[in-house]
Amino acid sequence: MRNTKRINDDDPSNDTVRLLEKLAMTNLKLMHFETAEKFYSEALDMADQLFKFDTEIGSVTEEDALYNIASIHFKKGNLNTAKETLANIIRKSKKNGPNIDPKIHNLIGMIYFSEERYYEARIYFDKAFKGTKNVENFPNRQKIHILYNLGNASNQITYFDDALDYFNWAVEEVDNSNFGAFDKKIEHIRLYTKIGHSHFNLGNLGQAYEYYTKAYILDENLFKGEKRETVMELRRYIGVTRSHQGQFDDALFIFDEILYSHKSVDWPDGIIVGKVLLDMSEIYYVCGSTHLSQEHQFKLAISCCKRAFDIFSHSKLREDHPCVQQGNVLKTLIRQEFPEV
User: Fold this and answer.
1) Cα 166 from Cα 147, distance rounded (Å)
2) CA-CA distances (angstroms) from residue 263 to 88, 240, 267, 272?
3) What's the CA gap between 316 and 109, in Å, rounded?
4) Of 179, 212, 173, whose CA–CA distance to 195 is shortest?
5) How many angstroms separate the CA atoms of 280 and 284, rounded?
6) Which of 13, 72, 335, 337 is the most buried (most CB within 10 A)?
C-alpha cells in the first residue's frame, strides 16, 4: 500500500500547494506545457519541504504530478527527461509495493514508439496491459488506449495477426463500455481503420475494404457537411484497396472524387493530395485504365507524379520522407519505361 500523507489542512502552505496544482492542471489542459511544468514543480518542491516522503499535493499524489510532468516533457519532445522522470516514479513505487501503475509503462512505451524502437515499445505496452489486471475498476478508456498502442506497435514489427487481435479486443471493450454514442462512434472509426490496415497488410483485401468502408460511412454520418482530412484519408484507403484488387477504374474514380473535394475546401495541408496523385500515377504506370492508350497513360503517370512533387515541395517535405522516396522510385521507373514522355 502506498505510504501517502496529505498536507495538514490547517497549514496555510496547503492552500498554496492546492493553488499551484490547480494552475498546473489548467495550463496542462490548455497545452501550455512549460507553464504547467513550472507550477507542478513548484507544488512538488513545497510539498517536499513539508514532508520528506510520498505526499499528496492538493488533490493528486506526488506520483500523479511527476507523471504529468513526464507527459509534458514527452509532448515537448524532451524524451530523455521524460524517461528520467518516469524512472524516478518507478524507483519510488517499488519501495511501496510491486505493482506499477499501468499508465507509467504505457507512457514509456509511447516514448519508445516515438523513437521508432517498436520492439521495446511493445514490451512496455504489454507490461501496461498486464498491469491493468492488478487494478480494480481500471478505467475502460485507458485500457482501450493501451490495446490500441499494442496494436500499433505490433503492426510496426509486422506482427499483423497480433495487431488484429488487439484492435478487435479494443472494439469489444468499446462495445461493452458505458461511453456515450458519439464517443463510441469515434472509437469505432479509429479502430475500424486500424483493423483495415491489419487486414490490408495480411493480404485480406476484401476484409480491408469492408473495415475501411465501415469507418468511412461512420465518419461521413457523424460529421455531415464537414470535409475532414480523416474522411479523405479513409476514402483514399478504400481507393488503394480497390487498386490492389485490380479494380483500377473504380480506384481512379475514388481518387478523382478526393481531388475534387480538396479543391472546394481550405485544407490545413495538401499532403493527402500528393499521396492520391502518386496513387493515380502508379495505376497509370501499370496501364490500369481500360479506357486510355498506353502512351496517354504514361503521360498521365508522369504528370501526376510531377504535381505530387510540387505539393511535397510546397509542404517542405524532406528527401527522406516516405512520400518523396516513393515518388522518386516511381518517377525513375516511368522514365526508364518511356523516356520520351
Assistant:
1) 6
2) 51, 21, 9, 12
3) 30
4) 212
5) 6
6) 72
Which one-letter amino acid corresponds to residue 166? Y
Q: Compute, in degrees rounded to 10, the torsion defined by CA atoms 282, 285, 288, 289.
A: 110
What single string gives the DSSP state of each residue in 20-33?
HHHHHHHHHHTT-H
**Distance between CA 44 and CA 41 in Å, rounded?**
5
Q: Round to whole Å and give the CA distance between 208 and 237.
A: 9
Neighbours of 331 (CB within 10 A): 19
C-alpha 240/C-alpha 252 separation (Å) is 9
Contact 211, 192 (CB under 8 A): yes
Which pTM does this prediction carry? Answer: 0.78
Confidence of residue 47 (pLDDT cuts 50, 70, 90): very low
Instruction: Give tens-digit pLDDT for 278-292.
Output: 999 999 888 766 777
Sorting pLDDT into bands at 50, 70 and 90, what band is 30? Answer: low
Residue 128, number of CB atoms within 10 A of its CB:
27
Strand 55-57: give its sheet, edge to edge.
5-6, 55-57, 60-61
Q: Grid coordinates representing 40?
A: 507542478
State the Cα–Cα distance between residues 101 and 312, nearest whole angstrom.
42
> Where is 103: in which H helix or E strand?
helix 102-114
3-state SS assignment for residue 97: coil
State whether residue 53 is helix, strand or coil: coil
Helices (H), 115-225: 118-132, 140-156, 160-175, 181-202, 205-222
Give how far Cα 136 sits from Cα of 131, 174, 213, Å. Answer: 11, 18, 37
Residues 6 or more apart in contact with residue 290 via CB below 8 angstroms: 248, 249
- In Å, how far are 8, 39, 43 from 19, measured between CA atoms? 15, 9, 9
Calpha distance 146→126 (Å, rounded): 8
Q: Rounded CA gap, 118 and 110, in Å?
A: 9
